[in-house]
Amino acid sequence: MDTPKRSFPFGLILLGATATLVGVGLAVLVLSSSSAAQQSGLPILSPSTRALLREGAPAPEFTLKTLDGRPVALSDLRGKAALINFWASWCPPCLEETPALIAAYEELKRTNPNIEFIGIGTNDDRANLEKFAENNRIPYIIVEDPDGEVSDAYGVLGMPTTVFVDSSGVVRRIWNGAIKKEQVIEIMRGMR
After folding, report:
1. Which domain holds residue 68?
2. Which residues of 144-159 are buried (b: 16+ CB within 10 A; e: fewer)?
3. Greatest CA separation found in the chain?
4. Which residues are within 8 A (CB) of 182 and not within 5 positions of it... i.e. 6 or more apart?
5. Would you call 189 helix, strand, or coil by DSSP?
6. Residues 12 and 80 in one domain
7. Into how many domains does the chain fold?
8. pLDDT tens digits for 24-69?
9. Count of beta carbons in the 10 Å neighbourhood of residue 114
10. Could you give the CA distance from residue 134 to residue 60 in angstroms, rounded to a whole number?
11. Are residues 132 and 82 in the same domain?
12. Cα Rg for the chain, rounded, in angstroms?
């Protein structure tokens, strides 16, 4: 009786090699982003730490520059309720929600000076951000995050993303996607 020949498991070897290459690629990506964060002075957040950014957690500190070069830190806003909006001039839903953010900001600011909005232009060109802010007469703070380091620290996966931070620096709400004026006002009025 002949014993059946076993074929060499090339498919299994190919699968193992592919998994190894993917793992090495991810390791290189994590190490390079950690190195960039160290050089910028931002806190280093591993992917598992990013996943912990949730409502009720402290908002990661950041310092970014306004379009005219003035530094703005999240800690500068301690004592104020803050809306942090991650956006880009090339993002259609971001452009769509901008009038709602402007209207909400203006309405809220009339009745409560202890609020602030920060628009973080992410992975965008400064000239595009300046043109958009000027054309839309955006009244709130606009800063730039050209390499997306702060959006990475906040775990932003898509834009627009809006993070609501209370006066003590705690994340109270994370909103993914475009938001409406009424929603902004309701959330901001519910924060201290």
Report:
1. 54-189
2. bbeebbbbbbbbbeeb
3. 92
4. none
5. helix
6. no
7. 2
8. 444 434 444 333 333 333 333 334 444 457 889 999 999 999 999 9
9. 13
10. 28
11. yes
12. 22
The full length of the chain comes to 192
Give residue 75's Cα distance to chain centre: 17
pTM: 0.72
Above 70 in pLDDT, residue 16? no
CA–CA separation, 165 and 58 (whole Å) = 8
pLDDT at 33: 39
The one-letter amino acid code at 77 reads: L
Collapsing DSSP states into helix, strand and coil, what is residue 22?
helix
Average pLDDT rounded to a whole number, residues 91-112: 95
CA–CA separation, 172 vs 165, rounded Å?
6
Share of the chain above pLDDT 70, in %: 72
- Amino acid at the residue 98: T
Pair 36, 59 in one domain: no
Angstrom distance (rounded) from CA 85 to CA 160: 7
* Interatomic CA distance for residues 172 and 178, integer angstroms: 18
What value does the mean pLDDT take over residues 114-137?
A: 94
Residue that has been written with the tokens 């992975």 in this structure: 123
- Residue 162, token pair as written in the block: 């809006």
